[in-house]
């Protein structure tokens, strides 16, 4: 379904799981987990290929596509910013009547979640930041790609993240398979809806200037940070930066030494997220 969040913009939303569960003579309310997908320019479909769907035993799950992406309304390119995407989290919750969500942001979705923490610190009940970074560190990314894919992968990654859009095809072919320890599933990749205009817009501008570290100090709720030791696109060093920028009493950092981007963001962290939701 598409939900009007105001300003003539509708976001594509899909909901899985019960929000109210019968328990004896009463109805018990479960928490709502709102999933912010990666990209930019992709959609929420990767979440539906993961074990995160099993969280319906403890929560209602809400998936949506960011404005300009997936099946949501395109809107206008000046609104493709972290501030607007972060505020859309609140707008969507208002439209759906969600109070105190648990927000799960992976990769680019984690960047949106970080800006959301800074702009709306009292809004979430909890936040999960999976395989994400607070700023673009091309040297660290290139080093990580060399570790998992050799010199060619490092060279292509450096060109792409330094905004050589002619490297996009090589990046998809050589670097994106390295996001996963296991070979990527072509059916999963084929299901994604991509808007390359959003990717180019973000890469040409805000990606190179953003630094989300200061805003993370505004956190007022528990935050779980997840990362993988073989993640080349948001490497360990960038995960540590995110964790170190949060209030220490609210932050929990879990790092998987033998897993990469998709395993942590989709599958390996599910049990930890379940415990975080219920704990």
Per-chain topology:
Blueprint (H helix, E strand, L loop, with lengths): L1 E3 L5 E7 L3 E4 L2 E4 L2 E5 L23 E5 L17 H15 L5 E5 L1 H12 L6 E5 L7 H24 L6 H8 L10 H6 L4 H9 L8 H4 L6 E6 L7 H10 L5 E6 L4 H8 L1 H9 L1
Parallel strand pairs: 5-6, 5-7, 7-8, 8-9, 9-10
Antiparallel strand pairs: 1-2, 2-6, 3-4
Helix pairs in contact: 1-2, 3-4
Q: How much beta, percentage-wise? A: 15-25%
User: Low-confidence spans: pLDDT under 50, at least 5 residues?
Assistant: none
Helix/strand-derived category reads alpha/beta
Question: How many separate structural domains?
Answer: 1
The secondary-structure element order is EEEEEEHEHEHHHHHEHEHH
Mean pLDDT across all residues, rounded? 95
Share of helix, binned:
25-40%
Shape: globular
Through-space gap between termini? 31 Å
**How would a textbook summarize the main sheet?**
8 strands, mixed
Spatial strand order of the main sheet? 1-2-6-5-7-8-9-10
CATH-defined topology: Rossmann fold
What is the H level of CATH, i.e. the homologous superfamily?
Answer: Alpha/Beta hydrolase fold, catalytic domain
Q: What is the C-alpha radius of gyration, as a whole number of Å?
A: 18 Å
Number of strands: 10
CATH architecture: 3-Layer(aba) Sandwich
The helix count comes to 10
């Amino acid at each position: 379904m598409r939900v009007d969040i105001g300003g003539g913009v509708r976001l594509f939303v899909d909901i899985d799981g019960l929000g109210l569960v019968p328990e004896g003579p009463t109805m018990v309310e479960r928490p709502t987990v709102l999933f912010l997908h990666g990209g930019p320019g992709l959609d929420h479909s990767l979440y539906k290929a993961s074990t995160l769907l099993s969280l319906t035993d403890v929560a209602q799950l809400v998936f949506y596509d960011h404005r300009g992406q997936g099946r949501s309304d395109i809107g206008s390119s000046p609104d493709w910013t972290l501030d607007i995407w972060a505020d859309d989290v609140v707008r969507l919750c208002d439209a759906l009547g969600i109070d105190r969500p648990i927000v799960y942001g992976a990769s680019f979705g984690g960047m949106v979640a970080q800006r959301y923490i800074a702009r709306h610190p009292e809004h979430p009940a909890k936040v999960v930041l999976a395989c994400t970074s607070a700023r673009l560190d091309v040297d660290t990314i290139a080093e990580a790609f060399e570790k998992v894919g050799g010199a060619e992968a490092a060279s292509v990654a450096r060109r792409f993240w330094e905004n050589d859009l002619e490297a996009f095809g090589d990046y998809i072919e050589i670097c994106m398979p390295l996001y996963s320890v296991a070979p990527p599933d072509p059916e999963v990749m084929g299901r994604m809806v991509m808007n390359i205009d959003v990717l180019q817009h973000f890469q040409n501008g805000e990606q190179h200037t953003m630094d989300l570290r200061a805003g993370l100090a505004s956190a007022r709720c528990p935050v779980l940070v997840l990362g993988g030791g073989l993640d080349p696109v948001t490497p360990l060093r960038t995960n540590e930066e995110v964790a170190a920028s949060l209030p220490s009493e609210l932050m929990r950092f879990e790092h998987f030494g033998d897993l990469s981007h998709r395993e942590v963001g989709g599958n390996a962290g599910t049990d930890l997220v379940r415990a975080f939701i219920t704990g």
